Amino acid sequence: MKRFSIVVSIFLFLSNHLAGMTNENMVGRIPFIKKDHYILVTAKINDSQSDYNFMIDTGGITFIDKTVVQELGLKQRGPMAKITTLNLSGYRIENIFCFTTFDFNIFRGAGTPIHGIIGSNLMERFKVTFDFQACFVIFSTDTTSLSPPDNSLFFTFRNHPVNNAPIIKFKVNQEIIEGMIDTGQPFPVVIPFEDFEQFEKLDNTGFIRSKGLMIKWPQTTPRYNYLTRLKSCEFGSLKINNVICIFGEIPPVLSMPLIGTDLLFQFKMVINYPQDEMMLIPNPDSHFEDNQFSLGLNLNLSDKNEIFVEGLWENSPADKSNIQVGDQIITFNSIKATPENLIELIEMLKDDSIESISFEIKNQDGIRKLKLNKILLF
Predict the structure, then answer these.
(1) pLDDT > 70 in the chain, percent
(2) For residue 29, what are the β-bridge partners?
(3) Which pLDDT value is given to residue 203?
(4) Confidence check: pLDDT of 378 > 60
(5) Are 349 and 294 in contact (CB under 8 A)?
(6) Who contacts 102 (Cβ-Cβ below 8 Å, separation ≥6)?
(7) What residues contact residue 164 under an 8 Å CB cut-off, 6+ apart?
(8) CATH code linked to domain 2-140
C-alpha cells in the first residue's frame, strides 16, 4: 500500500506540473448519458477515428484501459500512459497522464464498454458544472470565485490527498463529519466498515444485513454490507431526514464517508476546483428518498457472462422467496437476461413505478418461475 501511495504521488505531480490546459475553447459544454449511476461521456483520443467512453468520477483517479493503450500505441512509463489530446465533444484537454492499472471488467454490466475514468485529479484544473437533469457537464477555465444564488448550498472544501476529490463537512445526527463527493457510486451516503460501531450507537432506524454483496470496491474483499437510515443529515442549511446509508469496505487509501449520486442527482452541482469551492443548486423537482421500495436484489455478471445474484437484503422479498447468492437470472418479465440488458433490469429494480418483476431463476435444483413484489425495506 505504501508503494501505491508513492506511485500516486508521482502521478499527481506529473498531472499538476506537466499538463497543458485546453485549446482556444475556454468553456466546453459536454453532453453525457446516465447509465444507472454512471456518468458517461464520449471522447476521441489523440484524434482517433473511434470514440471511447469515459466515466466522470469525482471520487476517482484518471485511468485508461490497457487495451486502449495498446490499440492506440500510447506512450507508457511504468503504470501510466500519456494522452496527448482528449477531445470531449470539441473541447480539447492536452497532456493527460493516466493510470493503466484499473480492471475495467467490473463495468461489463453497464451495457456499453467503458474505456476510461476522468477523475478529480484531472478536473482540478477547471470549474466543473454538473447539470444532472439536462445531462451535460461544463468544463471552464474561468475559475473566479463562485457567486451562489440565494437557493443554493455553498461549501468550501479540502482535497483528498490521493485523488484530489472534494471533501466537505456535513452533519449526521447532529455530529460533524467529513464526506467525499463521489459521482462514481450510487448510494446517498456510504460509511466505511471501520466506523460501523460508532454509527451503530447513533439514533438510526435499524440495520439490515446483506447476504452476499450489495456494493463492492476494487482491491477489497468484503463478505456483506449493512443498510440503515441515518436519522438526519445536514448539508449547510438543508436538513434531510431518514437518509439511506450503506456500510461498505472502501480501499484504505480512500477510506472515508462518501456522498453519492442518489443524493447529488437532486442538484445542479458546481465544483470550482482551483478555488476549493462548491455549490449545490436544488432542482425544481428535487426529492430525497427516505425508504427503499425494493425487491432487495443486487445483480452482476459472472465470468461466463451470465446474470447472477451477487447479494440480497435479509428479509427482503428476494430473501423470503429463497433466492440464493449465486442463482442465475434466466429471464425477467419474459425477456431473456443478457449482458446487454443487465442495466435495463437494474434500472427496473430501482424504478419505484414498477411494483413487481417476474423471473426465471436457475440453480443446482433446476429452473423455477416466480414473481416478486417490491416492499418498503424499512
Answers:
(1) 92
(2) 138
(3) 58
(4) yes
(5) yes
(6) 63, 65, 117, 218
(7) 12, 119, 120, 121, 124, 273
(8) 2.40.70.10
Instruction: Determine whether domain 293-376 maps to CATH 2.30.42.10.
Output: yes
80 vs 7: CA distance, rounded Å: 10
Could you give the CA distance from residue 52 to residue 135 in angstroms, rounded to a whole number?
Answer: 18
E runs forming strands in 188-248:
189-192, 207-212, 226-235, 238-248
pTM here? Answer: 0.91
Greater confidence (9 vs 151) lies with: 151
Mean pLDDT of 13-42: 72
Residue 83, phi then psi, degrees to nearest 5:
-100, 120
Cβ atoms of 81 and 62 closer than 8 Å: no
Write out the CATH class of domain 153-282.
mainly beta
pLDDT, tens digit (0-9, with 9 covering 90-100), for 165-211: 999 999 999 999 999 999 999 999 999 999 998 877 765 668 999 99
89: cell is: 465533444
Residue count of the chain: 378
Distance of CA 216 to the CA centre of its chain: 11
d(CA 350, CA 339): 18
